[in-house]
Amino acid sequence: MEEEPSDQTAETLEQNEETATPIETVQGTVTSGITPTSVEIPSLNINAPIESLGLTETGAMDVPEDGETVGWYNRGAKPGARGNAVLAGHVDDYTGPAVFFDLKELNIGDEVVVYGERDEALMFEVVKMERYPYDDAPIRDIFGYTNSQRLNLITCTGEFDRVERTHRERLVVYTELKE
Amino acid sequence: MKLKRLMMSMLAGVMVFSVFSVTAFAHDHESDDAWVRIVHASPDAPAVDVTVNGDVVVEGAEFKAATDYLELPAGEHDVAIFPAGEHDEPVIEATLEVGAGNAYTVAAINTLENLDLHVIEDETSTTDGMAWVRVGHLSPDAPEVDVTAGGDVLFAGAEFPSVTGYEEVEPMTADLDVRVAGTEDVVLELPGTELEGDMLYTVLAVGFADGEPGLDTIILADPSHDAMPSEMPATGMGGTADQNSNYMAAGMLIVLLASGALFFFFRRPAFENQ
Predict the structure, then answer these.
(1) What domains lie within chain A, and their CATH numbers?
(2) CA–CA min distance B94, chain A (Å)
(3) In chain B, what are the domains?
(4) Distance between alpha carbon B160 and the CA centroid of its chain, in Å?
(5) Nearest Cβ partner of A90 from B189, B237, B242?
(6) Percent of chain B scored above 90 by pLDDT?
(7) Which of B268, B267, B258 is nearest to A94 (CA)?
(8) Would you call B229 and A61 a contact, using CB atoms and an 8 Å cutoff?
């Protein structure tokens, strides 16, 4: 009794190999993102141009020179692709509030819209907000690979450390692509 | 959608995990820890929960789901896979030994009846500017295959269950085909696959060649470790920080002047390049 099904399996396998020639081609799934040009956060009234940026000489993610532009980390994922796409914006400039000053006011579920070169629009939703010490953030979780289609927004928060000349903390807003 | 909910719960799993590891390894994650991610590549197995040392790290992962990297201390860990929500009897259990600074992909492979854990060691850095690609044959009933890029054989004779070594290629958009080994019969095609510089790609062929769910791929695209920043961006200049003394104001002026000088010094060449 037990031999029969196993024989069948062997037969099926053999058949498979024999009939391998007319195999129907399957198309796999590939996700690719967009090259972002601007970002809009309706609940905070933010609408800002995006600049493509890499690393500084010391290996930090580079930031825009002015307070009104948002930087996209071009060595990471594109928004919409699987992985972590990262946008960074200043909380303040030398004289007052900058583009991401109100970022801490976001709530889980709020929307972030990213526009691409060909006017594509992708809508993301806030799923998590975390604060980290400026020198001890989980870089890999923020910049590394993820199977989700994530967009992470970074700005500074906490006290401004005049010795280190940087805010003591970073705020990371994790968002995910809405279907 | 389903997948999204699943990813959210995975994220929750990762978060729970990070809370523990962050407290234990505040300043030294990279050197003392290992990174492990889990892929559900058993086509006929149900959704699963995964525990590491008894802690649930993944909930309700379905076929083709991959977790993000979990941070684990170097050493031995007990990994167990359960049907989602039923933790009485694991479907499979294994001890995983991980080395400090190494990354691993652990795939649950083969049919449910013959479920196995396949441990793959991951590279984390490419040669500067190059793309590294490897392919895994994790389809239990598919024949031996070749993988071609733009018609040229990139990997030859991959058999179930195996993952090839990495091949280094120039960044390109490639038409990747999976063919029955030694033939031109394409079983799976991935047209227009973007292979970017400073990225590592693991292309896993999963599913049944004959049956449902059919053949598909899981593509894991990891930025090279060197492509990730070593520091967070400096996203503030201090203009809204409290200024409650003249001393502070003076300090700020110095900062302002110093940054201005640096700014000029570093930025000027960049402008010339543009």
Answers:
(1) 31-177 (2.40.260.10)
(2) 24
(3) 1-122 (2.60.40.1120), 126-232 (2.60.40)
(4) 21
(5) B237
(6) 63
(7) B258
(8) yes
Q: Tell whether B270 is within 8 A of chain A (Cβ).
A: no
The segments of chain B whose pLDDT lies below 50 read 1-29, 243-246, 264, 268-274
Residues B21, B26: Cα–Cα separation, whole Å = 8
Most A CBs within 10 Å: which of B235, B240, B266, B273, as the mutation test of the A interface?
B235
**What per-residue confidence (pLDDT) applies to B93?**
93
pLDDT band at residue A50 under the 50/70/90 scheme: very high
Q: How near does any CA of chain B get to the CA of A95, in Å?
A: 4
* Mean pLDDT score of chain A: 86
**Which pLDDT tens digit goes with each residue over A68-101?**
999 999 988 899 988 899 999 999 999 999 999 9
Q: What's the pLDDT at A115?
A: 96
Rounded Cα gap, residues A57 and B141, in angstroms? 50
Q: How far apart are CA A31 and CA A1, in angstroms?
A: 48
